[in-house]
Each structure stands twice: as structure tokens, then as C-alpha cells.
Design brief:
This protein is of the alpha/beta class. A 6-stranded mixed β-sheet has the order 1-2-3-4-8-10, with helices on both faces. A hairpin with a 2-residue loop joins β5 and β6. The chain starts with a strand and ends with a strand.
């Protein structure tokens, strides 16, 4: 069973809206593509877990701090016999291994994922030791993309290529046969409780409020939306429709994440959303999920659950 879903990728969502609102440099553009491609690979890998029929616990997108070092895990599978860590890579094209050096056929060197991979397993073992939980730990480096080939890959390396995924998940289903001891569920609960939810978005481009173009960016992050009818907005690029209320509240969420220091006033949100000029309409939408806080002559909105 999926004990912890992957959830949303807030960093990617913010990157999408920023790259529509301002011109970003080549480095930021490459970071955006890398982030989006990696997220797509992880979501594709998530679908494979749905083929498992036996009892197991699946925890996705975990972030811990172990011995003052951050540990990020793409996916974790807990079975009655062992724990398996999955690192998912959505590489495509050709890469050559030459000792500890990984490079493209052109000779351009790339970061060796095995270094991070080995560090991840070591830190997780330390975490289990701190939790006083003893269970065999194995790690797999998944290359999810069918258009990827790794030259000179060692036979005994922990690699799983696209053509091997079907066999791997059949093996995992066999491994998961049998009932899970109660302690395994307690471990999953503890790991989820230790997961770090709020993290700094290190890969976002530098931005400020004044330079960002105002308006509501569509959910796909491809363009700004315009009024389609009395109740709906439409994306000029992909044609997706969205109710005005949903679009405004989504845009306010982006604004709060991008500018946590700014207050959500009616005029501020109206300016940020751009496409809806009626402050009364904006105020009506805000009151759906926010409460009005009045301080002296000024007022602003805060989340109802805050």
C-alpha cells in the first residue's frame, strides 16, 4: 500500500510560474528542465508500485536530517524481509562509465550518481540504527527512461534499466509475500513523522516582485490565462479552462510561497492576479479559504487553519 504519496512538487510549480513571468537565464532554464524531467520520471515509477499485490508499505519523496546532513529518498519499500531504497533517474541518450568517471560520448563529464547513491544508503542505515530498528537494507538505482543506454556498466552494480523493470517488480511482489510485523508499520509512522516538509527551494532563479509579470499562469505553466466567460479563464497556449475562483486561489497560493513576507490584501491579490479587476470578486474568492484580519486601519487575509 502507498503509505506516503509523493504529493506535489512545490518547487517545480513555482519554477513554472516564474519562468512565465520573467526571462530566465540558460542555467536556470537547464535547472527547470532537469527538475521537471526528474519529477516526470518519479511519477512514472510510482505507477509501477500499483502492480504490487502483496503486503508492503511504500513511502515516496522523503527528506530527513541525519547527523546534520540532509538525506533525500525518492521511494522506499518496506517488506516483511527487507527495506529497499529506490533512486530514480530519468536520463536519456548515452552515457559511458570509465572507472569512477561518468561522461557523455563527447567526453563531457557528468556527476556520478553512485556517489550520492552510496551516501544515501549509508545515512539511512545510520537513521535506522538511531531508531533501533534492525532490518536488511538494499538500494536500487532505477533508470526509468527507455531511451537511455549506459556503456561499460558493471554487471554487479545496483542498476535497474527500463527493460528490467517488469522482472524487478515481479521479484518485489514475491519478496512482499507474507504479513507485515507490527513493528514495520511503526517504523513507517516514525519515518513519516521525521520527514522534513518545509525545505528551501535552492534551484529557483533569483526574482523580485517588481520584475515579475502579473497575471494568472495556467496549471501547466505554459502561459497566462485570459477571461473566457463570466466564470472561466482560458490559457492562451494550451486552451485549458479553469474556474475563476480556483484559478485565483491557486495563484494566491503561489504568491504566498514566492513572497511570504508580503501581506495578502485585496488590492495586493488583485494586482498579482491581474486578469480579474474587480476587487469585490477577489475578496469573495479569498473569503472561501482565508479569514480577514483587521489591524487598525489596515486589513489582510490569512489562511483559516493558520
Amino acid at each position: 500500500m502507498i503509505y506516503k504519496s509523493r504529493g506535489e512538487n512545490t518547487e517545480l510549480e513555482l519554477f513554472r510560474t516564474i519562468q512565465v513571468r520573467k526571462r530566465i537565464g540558460e542555467k536556470d532554464e537547464n535547472n527547470y528542465k532537469y527538475l521537471e524531467k526528474g519529477w516526470l520520471g518519479e511519477k512514472q515509477f510510482d505507477q509501477l508500485f500499483l502492480t504490487l499485490t502483496n503486503e508492503c508499505l511504500i513511502l515516496n519523496n522523503l527528506l530527513f536530517e541525519v547527523n546534520n546532513t540532509q538525506l533525500q529518498i525518492d521511494s522506499l519499500l518496506i517488506t516483511s524481509k527487507e527495506i529497499i531504497i529506490f533512486e530514480v533517474k530519468n536520463f536519456e541518450g548515452d552515457i559511458v562509465i570509465d572507472g569512477n568517471r561518468w561522461h557523455l560520448p563527447s567526453g563531457k563529464e557528468i556527476k556520478n550518481p553512485l556517489i550520492q547513491f552510496s551516501r544515501c544508503e549509508s545515512l539511512f542505515r545510520q537513521l535506522l540504527e538511531e531508531l533501533r530498528f534492525t532490518l536488511s537494507v538494499e538500494s536500487k538505482l532505477e533508470f526509468i527512461n527507455p531511451e537511455f543506454y549506459l556503456y561499460e556498466a558493471p554487471v554487479k552494480a545496483p542498476f535497474v534499466f527500463h527493460a528490467q523493470l517488469g522482472r524487478l517488480f515481479k521479484k518485489l511482489d514475491t519478496l512482499a509475500a507474507g504479513s507485515l510485523p507490527g513493528g514495520h508499520l511503526q517504523l513507517a509512522e516514525k519515518l513519516v513523522s521525521l520527514h522534513i516538509k518545509d525545505t528551501p527551494y535552492k534551484r529557483l532563479p533569483v526574482y523580485n516582485y517588481e520584475e515579475l509579470e502579473k497575471g494568472i499562469v495556467c496549471m501547466r505553466g505554459c502561459s497566462f490565462m485570459v477571461v473566457a466567460s463570466q466564470n472561466y479563464l482560458v490559457c492562451l497556449n494550451c486552451g485549458d479552462l479553469e474556474h475563476k475562483e480556483s484559478a485565483v486561489l491557486r495563484s494566491v497560493k503561489e504568491f504566498r510561497l514566492l513572497f511570504p513576507e508580503r501581506k495578502n490584501t485585496t488590492s495586493q491579490v488583485t494586482e498579482w492576479c491581474g486578469v480579474i479587476s474587480s476587487r469585490l470578486t477577489i475578496r469573495k474568492y479569498l473569503l472561501k479559504e482565508y479569514k480577514l484580519v483587521t489591524t487598525g486601519r489596515t486589513s489582510h487575509f490569512v489562511k483559516k487553519d493558520e
